[in-house]
Amino acid sequence: MKKIFLQIGATRDGQNPYCEVAQREGYFTVLAEMGDFIDYQSIGLNLPFDMVLRINRPESPYEVMQAWMNAGLLEHPQVVLAGFEAYNQSAGRVREMLADPLDRQCFIPLDKYAQRMALKKALPSFPQPEFRFFASALSIKDARNALIYPCVIKPVDGGGGLGVWLVKTPQELDKAVMSLVSTMNYGGRCFSGFIVECCLEGQEYSLQGVVCEGRPYALTCCQKLIERIGEGDGPIGFYESGHVGVAAHDLPPAFTRLMHFCCKIFDYRQGAFHIDFIVVNGVPHFLEMGFRLSGMGVVNLVKEVTGLNWAEIAFNLEQGKNFGGLPFDTPHHAVGQLRLRQRPQLAAAELWIHQNQRGTIAPPIALPQLIVSHDSALYADLTRHAGILGTLRLEAADPREIMALFNSVTSIHHLPARRDLQCAE
């Protein structure tokens, strides 16, 4: 019987780590993705999959399976994984549909609101920002005078930071809501809801790892660099520009407890994950958990830091193989990467490399800048994942050296408010 791997959604960073592993393992590889996005990404990339299914809504497991049958694929895929976070629930539902009806124990990824509620129900004192749920953007405006400012608005089912705003006053909230009303989710669909949470000031981190038979293993811990976007008295967006990663040998106990608690409460027993949190006064506060590989080239960063192929480990878990954790001889060093979106930042990075004879700048994916309408299926992708001029990469013994350089480069010129760069990532 032919082994088949189905990936729902293309990666947005141009990497295809699952496909590479699957083909090395002898799988026939299939990608299900929006036809418009396939056409757009194919301009600058050669998609390595053996078959591509062009569908309108990758977020619909029923449409994925209908396309599968229409393509004449009579055998079920042995491995089903999402290539992009917006389609993670769809991948979970497809796995559930294909599972043995007498033994269905498939994990369905929780959205941001469901995660927050599960943690609050399990332990009301668990550190996370105070939050409220709203079914629509306009309903947030109705509660403008009852909210505590500053606060952050987040769609519960977005991806890549789409639709995330920091507002400091009711007037800024009104402007953010008007923007959200006209902002479409990936594929041109609507958001299913929003959470509004208290804004916490601190240092943001993320853990990258896997869960094997219910036991979580952290591979790396990344300190994140967040740029703020905005001008004047309007709402502020964020852009997740940089990551400085180290191997997760000696995690602070609080980080380890956070990881174990989240996996236990969400009943996540197998697969890749990343957990985003912010440290306030020494205490990590949960922000969200992704049940997948990270984007933005973090898969490569994990490999550079640990020597381990994160995608291969996660794929092997889906095949029923085990993972024993980080090897003891993993080198202790830091690797950072910073995505550059402005010419002054790129020039500053190039000058630093020339003066210090260290570091590199990787060129961006050669994709064109297109102007599309707000209701286009490509609008979210073009506003969130385009416009990168290069990626600065630096290795050092001390992660603080890398973060100091990244802060220096990004402070050269603040990101202006732009029509085509609307929110956080």
From TrEMBL:
Q: List, alphabetically, the InterPro entries matched.
A: ATP-dep_AA_Ligase (IPR052032), ATP-grasp (IPR011761), ATP-grasp_PylC-type (IPR003806)
UniProt keyword Transport present? no
Q: Which GO terms describe its molecular function?
A: ATP binding; ligase activity; metal ion binding
Q: Which residues form the ATP-grasp domain?
A: 118-319
List each coiled-coil range: none
Instruction: Show the Pfam families listed in the entry.
Output: ATP-grasp_3
Output the superkingdom of the source species.
Bacteria
Record keywords, A-Z = ATP-binding, Ligase, Nucleotide-binding
User: Could you identify this protein by its name?
Assistant: ATP-grasp domain-containing protein
